[in-house]
Amino acid sequence: MGITDIRTTWPAWTGRAAAVWSAAYAAGAVGAALSPGRAYGYALGAKAHGTAVEWAVAGLYTAAAALGLLMLRRPGLRWAPATAWVAVAAAFVSGFGFLFSPAHLLDLVSRNQDPMDWAAWANQGVATLGAVLWTGTALAYRRRARGTCPHCGGRGHRARAERRTRAGYVAVAALLPYALLKSAWAAGARVGYSGSGRHPGLDEHYAGDQVIRLYEHGVDLTVVLALTGMALALVLSLPRFRRLPRLPLLALGWAGAGAFAPFGAFLLVYGSLAWAGVLDAGTGGHAPWVVAVAYGGFCFYGVALGRAVLGFQRATRRTCRVC
């Protein structure tokens, strides 16, 4: 089956593929729970044998497999699409680390990193594939239930240009506090930082010599990455960039949105609770407002990036060949 066939026939096979994937992933969780060896990414904290998490994962995806079979046999169930989105969320959480796996490239400029757990990485990649399959299943089932084209929804979606542009600017604004604060620290300021380290926001135990050298010259590597993320949001939102290769931009956009939105939400809640005095927890020498405002901005960036990439996807979508 070629790429063109996958694009045109996906509503017909994603449901069955999602059910098979769920059963296989559940079987893997059972195997991990029963084996005395490694957890292979199923258990939290890399605990290997018989943990409650592994059995819970097995039960969850067994139920997902049953849901997939039910959706194949019983079209038109009103509650099925919403339940399928729960399966999407579960698979996404299981594969969350895979979306951050490009960060391991930073090992080239860092040191003292923990060794890469390739088994867990592969597990998370498989889980991410499951999230994609269940997303296709949920979309196709809901569209069939509504009597619209399962391929495009039958609406010829076209996002308004001003909304796409606004999403890109919101994404840029969400990362500005982080970029400005980290740049100020690299320039010698210590606002929002009360730790004992010589370099605020930089862990010298892990940072490589090149990173420290750049930092001492006023360049924080993570600021460079933040600027790259801003550029990606603008490319996805501004009409002048629609002629760029579509699939790589969609892959980068959705991966970034899926990784940063929940990660930033956690930091936003954690920092806000610490800032309000509800949570008495350490923040590594950073003021709680730094965690809430600067790092919590990743949440708004992820959401805005998701809106921008959705607009880009709809604006560059070709005419549906089916309907």
TrEMBL record:
The superkingdom of the source organism is Bacteria
Looking at the UniProt entry, the stretches that span the membrane are: 52-72, 84-106, 118-141, 167-187, 221-238, 250-275, 287-310
Q: Which UniProt keywords apply?
A: Membrane, Transmembrane, Transmembrane helix
Does the keyword Ribonucleoprotein feature in the UniProt annotation? no
Q: Does the keyword Flavoprotein apply?
A: no
The protein's name in its UniProt record? Integral membrane protein
Organism, per UniProt?
Streptomyces luteireticuli
